[in-house]
Specification:
The chain has helices at about 70-85, 160-170, 230-240; strands at about 5-10, 10-15, 20-25, 35, 40-45, 55-60, 100, 105-110, 115, 120-130, 135-140, 145, 150, 175-185, 190-200, 210-215. By secondary structure, it is of the alpha+beta class. The chain is globular and about 55 Å long.
Length: about 240
């Protein structure tokens, strides 16, 4: 059985390949927590002291570009499920210890019968244009220019969340919001919905709390510090370019 060995939900063991890639699969069984992925691969949490010969633990983000897109998505699935298992141990209703249900992907309470499924936190990310310009932001303590993004709040639609986040982070209003794509975001358990929107009014300015600076760019003067190629932000920018 192919097995992925995680020391925590964001770090897993891997062997380097001669071509610069990575092989995170092992023919072993073990671990304190185990989940079966869509393709039948087993994902396990192992103790920090666990050692795999000729391998070393790497952060999940390290694997992008070093494994195929299919494997990359499976690593994200494994990370989210193991995070769910680690964080979902007692019943939120009565406090009893939960056990893994045998018939569906859920944790079940033996006392009150409550079921607890893997949690997903929806978030939105939006590329805002003004004619030939695009609006980028630099977060406080950031490392690259990015797009306006944030989590969806209770009672909001995805579009309403996008409008609010842009207003809060950049101080402008937008219109003509159009859905473009989505991406699982296992850091640790989000689903990112990507949109495009057009500038409507206001003067772009950072909120000074989360955002350090905002700036309009065009296709000829985009900064070098852009989102990483595996991110939905990069995909939205690349589509616009």
């Amino acid at each position: 059985m192919k097995t992925l060995l995680f020391t925590n939900p964001s770090t897993l063991w891997s062997r380097p390949l001669a071509d610069g890639g990575e092989n995170p699969y092992f023919e072993v069984a073990g671990g304190t927590v185990r989940e079966t992925l869509q393709d039948g691969t087993s994902a396990c949490l192992v103790d920090q002291e666990y050692v795999v010969p000729e391998a070393r633990p790497l952060p999940l983000r390290t694997f992008h570009g070093k494994v195929s897109p299919t494997i990359w998505r499976l690593l994200g699935e494994a990370s989210e499920l193991l995070y769910w298992r680690r964080e979902t141990r007692v019943c939120a209703r009565c406090g009893a210890a939960l056990f893994r249900d045998e018939t569906e992907r859920a944790m079940r309470c033996p006392s009150c019968g409550g079921l607890f499924y893997p949690r997903l936190n929806p978030a939105v990310i939006t590329l805002v244009t003004r004619g030939e310009d695009v609006l980028l932001e630099w977060k406080v303590h950031g490392s690259c220019w990015g797009l306006m993004a944030g989590f969806v709040e209770a009672g909001e639609s995805l579009e309403e969340a996008a409008i609010r986040e842009i207003r809060e982070e950049a101080g402008i209003e937008v219109r003509n919001i159009v859905y473009r794509c989505s991406q699982p975001w296992p850091y640790p358990n989000s689903l990112m919905a990507g949109f495009r929107a057009e500038y409507a009014s206001g003067e772009a300015r950072p909120d000074g709390v989360e955002i350090e600076k905002v700036q309009w760019f065009n296709r000829t003067n985009l900064p070098e510090e852009l989102p990483r190629p595996w991110s939905i932000a990069y995909r939205l920018l690349n589509e616009w370019r």
